[in-house]
Amino acid sequence: MELRHIETFLKIAELRSFTRAADELCITQPTVSKQIVDLERFFDVRLIDRTKRTVTLTKAGEILLQYAMDIVNLKKDTIEAIASFRGLKKGKMTLGASTIPGIYIMPRLLCTFKEHYAGINFELVISDTKDILDKMEIGLLDIGMVGARSETSKVDFKKLIDDTIIFIAPPDHPGTITLAELMDRPVIARERGSGTRNTLETALAKLKDFRKGGLNVVAELSDNEAIKQAVMNGMGMAYISRIAVAGEVAAGKLREVSVRGLPEIKRSFFTITRRGKTILPQVKVLMEIIDKWRRNEKA
After folding, report:
1. Residues spanned by CATH 3.40.190.10 within the chain?
2. DSSP structural state of residue 153
3. Secondary structure letter of residue 226 according to DSSP
4. pLDDT of res. 299
5. Residues paired with 161 in a beta bridge
């Protein structure tokens, strides 16, 4: 068994296609097929069921998939660790963040990192909290930032900063409304899996006066900039992180709306790492930069 066979297997499992896997790996389809045949001979079991239309993993293939990801991640970590040993002159990090920290916090920290370690490149994946946690659990990320904790035993959480979820409306909207009025207003919501949405729904569910039907949601958007533009153009109110909308509120483009009967909705952001995974030297340096920024934000 060779490492390239494992990498080919992973690419097929990801794309569910021998042809597309061959294209991405820049090898021929017969080479892909031969590598899988060699892998199946090595394990003496069928790993992939293939027909003219579908490619699916067998039960044995599903088992191999978990170990294959660990093998490829270990190769990446080894390369990065040796590169770091040479003085953090070369290397790469894969980072993940939910929307708010990914857009409004992580970029400034990465700029600081790059000023000192120009040779270390990085990939930043921005998605919802659930997806980032899923990616961290299977070892695809070196470090991440999310807007909610989970019960997973595979991820370590460290509190970063607190945030407040607020309601926003166009500038001519009243600055204060009642809970009953809120329930009648058209509201733009975040997508399912969003930490912002989960925190708000948990808070609303605790209110006795909040009706079972919930908010009058007229649209679900996964991008905060799109949400802000939708509110500015009169589609409705929206709930959003105060961090994400501070500039527009200060400029008078949007108004923060207080809701009587609704307590302040706080949540925390966390840095996350994979429990048991070796932390690369460049990741440790980034963690130090994050900690310094956190202390300054609290001061």
Report:
1. 87-161+268-298, 162-266
2. S
3. H
4. 57
5. 269
Q: Is residue 1 classed as helix, strand or coil in its secondary structure?
A: coil
Say if CB 141 and CB 274 are below 8 A apart.
Answer: yes
CA–CA distance, 206 with 268 (Å, rounded to integer): 19
pLDDT of 165 reads: 94
**Per-residue pLDDT tens for 43-95?**
999 999 887 778 889 999 999 998 988 888 888 777 777 766 666 667 788 99
Q: How many CB atoms lie within 10 A of CB 157?
A: 18
Domain covering 3-81 assigned CATH 1.20.1250.20 in the classification: no
What is the end-to-end Cα distance of the chain in Å, rounded?
A: 55
Question: Which residue matches tokens 């296609």?
Answer: 17
Alpha helices in the chain (DSSP H): 3-15, 18-25, 29-43, 59-85, 99-104, 106-116, 129-137, 179-184, 195-205, 224-232, 242-250, 281-298
Residues 31-47: tens digit of each pLDDT: 899 999 999 999 999 99
The CATH number given to 87-161+268-298 is 3.40.190.10
pLDDT of residue 86: 60
Q: Tokens representing 295?
A: 């202390």
- In this predicted model, what pLDDT tens digit does every residue of 168-224 receive, in sequence order? 999 999 999 999 899 999 999 998 888 888 889 888 888 877 766 689 999 999 899
